[in-house]
Amino acid sequence: MKPTNPCPSVLSSDACGQYRPEIDGLRAIAVIAVIICHSETSWIPGGFVGVDVFFVISGYLITRILLAELEAGRFSLAGFYERRARRILPALFCVLICCLPFAWFLLLPDQLENFSRSLLWTLAFISNFWFRGEIGYFAPAANEMPLLHTWSLGVEEQFYLFFPLLVFLCWRGRHRKWVFSTIVLIIALWSLKYADRKSWHGSSGVFFLTQARIWELFIGALAAVYLTRWRTCAPRRWLAETGAALGLSLILFACARLDADSPFPGRYTLLPTLGALGVILFATPQTLAGRLLASKPLIGVGLVSYSAYLWHQPVFTFLRLSDPLPILSYWPEQIVRILLCASPLALAYLSWRFVEQPFRNKRFLSRRHIFLLSAGGGY
Prior knowledge:
- There is one protein chain.
- This protein is an all-alpha fold.
- It has one domain (about 20-379).
- Helix content is about 70%, strand content about 0%.
- The chain has helices spanning about 20-40, 50-70, 75-105, 110-125, 125-135, 150-170, 175-200, 215-230, 235-255, 270-280, 290-295, 295-305, 305-320, 335-360, 365-379.
- Helix 7 runs antiparallel to helix 8 (about 215-230).
- The longest helix is centred in the first third of the chain and has 30 residues, at about 75-105.
């Protein structure tokens, strides 16, 4: 799958609109880690840190877009939320609709009641607060919740509510990059301290809280400011190679060594988030890590990573709750696991091709229609 129409509002691009394939490769690593972790294999117990990598990427790309628009005098809240709606809502609504018949036939009455409530909270993008009060992320019963993964969408959408205004208010005057960077850094340090303190005191609910996650998005935001406003020349070759390789290694180490018993989020979350930062700052097509991430298979998975993330939890949940096909019992377990992990990717391609792509095309639907459909879907 080759990226088409590469532009800052759609793909992983730098400040000049140049496509960065290594960012899509990083997305692929993140979503593959999450999928394998949630398939209940023992291969990478810390694969849940893929969500943290996503947060850093989102903070980086959103900040880069907003700063470019402010500098060009094209900043618009309506335009920003239109792009977010085109990006997030069509695939989400598609997955939620497809979940309804399976939930009706496979869930027990109490499970169906919880599903219905989580569906409403998901549509309002505050499901992270609902799941915080209902269940721990690593609790065994979490595998019976088809929409558990939407907590991260809630965190991102809540971030999108205030962050454009923060950028708009801070990005003015001669010292705007100093003012913005200082405010973001202070908030990020407070958020990290809050998350670390809560997680080490055994608060499982902190896993879902926006105030405990905002520092991860702000790492990406600071990376965008540095790359677009501070860096004056490319780093030396040895530094780029070392930084990119170290960043990728930190992510893989976190996937392999962290598990459900690790206090999270907090200081351990620095492993995947600083790893993502290293890749963003240093990986290029000239570095070994950059070439690896820019391989065609990883780019292909990266392009459909959002849809893959949306599909994986419902697919795994409903398969667990239904009787598998008898023929699967004769297959080697590892083959079944591989097929299980591949199934969300297959569905992801279909929704990327036939749902995500058409709705991103402004000739297909106008801004007015997008906002009407978004309001109607939420209602």
